[in-house]
Amino acid sequence: MYRTDHVTEESERTAFRKAEKKYKIYYDNAKKKKIPRPVDLSEVIDFRSILESFKRSGDLPDGVFELKCDFNLPVFGLVSRPGFYFIPAALSVEEQCHWIRESLTTFPQPPNRTNHNAIYGPVQDLFLAAKEGKVLVEEDKLPENVDSEVNLDQSNVNARHWNFVKLNEYCCRDACKSVSASALLRKLRWSTLGLQFDWSKRSYNVALPHKMIPEKLCMLAKRMAAPAMPCGEEFHPEAAIVNYFGLGDMLGGHLDDMEKDWSKPIVSISLGCKAIFLLGGKSREQTPVAMFLRSGDVMLMAGEARECFHGVPRIFTDPENTEITPLESQFSDEDHTSFLDYIQTSRININIRQVF
Ligand code: OGA
Ligand code: MN
Known about the structure:
The strands form five sheets. Strands 3-4-5-18-15-20-13-10-6 form a nine-stranded antiparallel β-sheet, covered by helices on one side. A four-stranded antiparallel β-sheet has the order 14-19-16-17, with helices on one face. The protein has a three-stranded antiparallel β-sheet with strand order 8-7-9. The protein starts with 8 loop residues before the first helix and ends with a strand. The chain has helices at 9-12, 15-23, 47-57, 93-104, 117-120, 126-131, 154-159, 181-186, 215-225, 325-333, 337-343; strands at residues 27-30, 33-36, 64-66, 76-78, 84-87, 113-114, 135-138, 162-165, 178-180, 190-194, 197-198, 203-204, 239-245, 251-254, 266-272, 275-279, 289-293, 298-301, 310-315, 347-353. The protein is 24% helix and 24% strand. The chain is built from eleven helices and 20 strands.
C-alpha cells in the first residue's frame, strides 16, 4: 500500500525521494515555537501566475503549452509530461465550498469506507459528532435489537460496539475505550466513493457494498475530463478517492495503476490549503517537476502521464501561505464555523477514476 511506502535505503537515494525531502515540512525549534524551516520554492511551477500573464499577454513560459480544446477555461500542458493537464482555478468559490461540505459530511458516510473502518467499523455522521463535541465509545454490550447471528463480517461486528455519545452522557463506567469525534475527524485520511478500493490488496473490490458516485460529482468529472478524453469518447466515473491532509501530512510518491484503461484520465480536484505536487517520470530516478496546487485547481492525468510517479510532499497550513481567503470569507458569511475551522489547516483532494 503506497500510503505507508516502505522506505529503504535504496529508495532514499532516488531523485523523487530527494525532491520529497526538499519540500517536506521540517521545523526549527526556536524558543519552543515550531517554525517551518524555509524552503526554496523558486523551481515550483505556479500555474495561477502563468494563467494571469497568459490572459494579459498571451505568453507562456518555455515548456508550457495551451491545449487547444473546446473548454471554457485555459487548459495547460507540460511538454515534458504528455497526457498531463492543469486547469487553474477551474472551480468557483461556491463550488469549492460545496465540495468541501460534501467531502466532510456525505462522502465519509457508510457504505463508503474510510481509514477509520478498520478499527471502528462504519462511522456515521463523524463531522456532526465532532461539531457537537461527541465521543465514540466502545460499548461492552451488544444493543438488544441486533441479532448476533447475522452480519458477522468484521465491519458489522464493530458497528455494534462503537457509538457516539454526548460528552455529558459519557461516564467511563467500565473503563471502556473512547475517542473524541474531533480527534477522529483530524485523523480522517481517506474515504472512497463508488466502487470501493481495498488498500490492503491494492485493488477494487466490486463485492463490497457501495453507492454510485453522486450524480453532481459525475457531471463535474465528465466536464473536467473532456479535454483529456480520446476523441468522441465520454468519461465514466466509477470510483473516487477523497484524501484529507492535515498539518504535516504528505502523500508519498506512487503510481495509480489499478484501473484497466490508462487512456482515460484521473480527474483530480484540489480544495483548501495550498500544496506542492510532484510529478515524476516513469521511474523514481527521474527528477520530478514541482508545482503548486491551490483550492479550485483541477489536474488531469491520462495516457503516458498515468505511468508517472507522483505525490504531495507538502501542504501549507500557516495562514500567510494557505491562499484560501475567498473560502474563508464565504464560510464565515454562511456562519459555518466548523467548516472554516477544518479547512484553515487542511487540504482535501478528490480524484475520480474510470475503473473499467
Ligand atoms: C491520489 C493522488 C493527489 C493529490 O490520491 O492518488 O495522487 O493531489 N492524490 O492529493
Ligand atoms: Mn495518485
